[in-house]
Amino acid sequence: MKRFSILYIFPLLLSPTLVLSYPPFVIPNSELPSTPPEILAPKFENPTITNCFLNNSIEHILPSSPAYLGLARPYNLRFNYKPAAIAYPKTQKEVQRLVKCAIKLDFRYAIRGGGHSYGAFGLGGEDGRLVIDMERFHEIKYEGATEIVKVGAGVRVGNLASQLLEHGRA
Q1: 125 and 94 within one domain
Q2: What is the C-alpha separation between 164 and 154, in angstroms, rounded?
Q3: Alpha helices in 36-156 (DSSP H)
Q4: 168 and 93 in one domain?
Q5: What's the half-sphere exposure (Cβ side, CA atoms, 13 Å) at 17?
Q6: Whole-model pTM?
Q7: Nearest in space to 113 (alpha carbons), one of 122, 124, 125, 104
Q8: How many structural domains is the chain composed of?
Q9: Cβ atoms of residues 83 and 126 within 8 Å
Q10: How would you write the pLDDT of the chain (170 residues) with one tens digit per residue?
């Protein structure tokens, strides 16, 4: 039988900020971003991938933008990959255009849903990838008759659990 030891709690007593600094599990809908902050017209470091954005009028962030460092920050700081660009599509058509353009240009891309991944795969898992951020796709639809839930690619687990709990399904 395993006994509880003060050795398990002692590190928590020494550094309570580690325990208290985690983000909340549920982000209220009122706090979900409708647009990414500070989308500017930055200098174009990668003209080939930039053409995808300009030709399709898709909002994006490049490394020269002041907002880039905050938006490209990994969840796990051990894997600090730097994407070539971060795109913020609003519609399925924009996602399709980005993927088609990246394939046409032989440019590697990654889809970022919730934003955290231990290996930073939402940032592409290596430097120089195009990140397609799905944060604007945060719709949750529950159909009570069929008990089917349609979940947007940018929905976070805490928000999904909260919505399902309202229908007695979490």
Answers
A1: yes
A2: 16
A3: 47-56, 68-71, 92-104
A4: no
A5: 0
A6: 0.68
A7: 122
A8: 2
A9: no
A10: 444 444 444 444 444 444 433 444 455 556 555 544 443 333 335 667 777 777 778 889 888 888 988 888 888 888 888 999 999 999 999 999 999 988 988 888 999 987 667 888 888 888 888 999 999 999 999 998 998 999 999 998 888 999 999 988 87
